[in-house]
Amino acid sequence: MKTHAFIRENVEKVLLSVESKINDEKFHYPNFSHYLYFLFAPTLIYRDQYPRNTIIRWNFVLQMFGEFIASMLYIYYVVVRFCIPTYANLKHTEITLPMFISVLFDSIMPGSLFFLLSFYGFSHCWLNAFAEMLRFADRMFYNDWWNSTTFAAYYRTWNVVLHDWFYTYVYKEIYVLTGQKNRSIPAICVVLLSAIFHEYVLVFSLGFFYPVMFLLFGVVGLAFQLFLPRQKGAMYNILIWLLLLIGVSLQSCLYFMETYARKSCPSNNTFWDKLIPRSFVCRMSLPSNKHLKIDL
User: Fold this and answer.
1) Between 19 and 224, residue with greater pLDDT
2) Where exactly are the structural domains of the chain?
3) What secondary structure letter does DSSP report for 135?
């Protein structure tokens, strides 16, 4: 994404200088130091210059890294304390609907903690630490997504860094290509591409393909964005929070079940085995004297 932004912002300068055959000194091409700074800067939009602070507060950097490590350790504690016992105690030969509902409710609290801790650890601590070390002054990495009353507002404010990239290089360009007459098509493309990106990250993080994130983000979330009424008020904010908590608990439940199934059920070493969720095709059972071990 950073490479695309770097090329996209500079290709017009190069083409213009080649076509006009003007002295290159008139065009300010970025050098390697610009590109290197952009690689580590907490932004996905390339600019030759960014607003910069005058000093680096190293105590703030240490605080942010400390809080990031604390967030990751707390996530690990939640997994060991709440998730592993829940899934290690599944002694049924198959997943029944009542048992699935029970496990789903047990996943609400851990899933909510994953959701909030990962947001705080990355969007606040990690990005602020790098911004401070690079004296990067623009710190709007997120907005008040917790006050959102629509999914459209939530998508715009949850991750401003990612939203700016999709808005600049996907939404605006598709809007121009479609004749600047329809805003729904660019918005749908942005949501689908964002869902694919999140699913891509999860595939490489978890080591298996299980498109729960894509379905909840790119299908269910898109449907809510298009068809839910766009109103303001506390009730709609409560509705957004309720749907988010159900979504993160469902993700936690299904991903842990799939992880458990892939550790408990043998693989047939075929191409389809990597694509088809093993929790659907394999009866999941676990001896009572064993516990699920998850490599974090």
Assistant:
1) 224
2) 1-40, 41-281
3) T
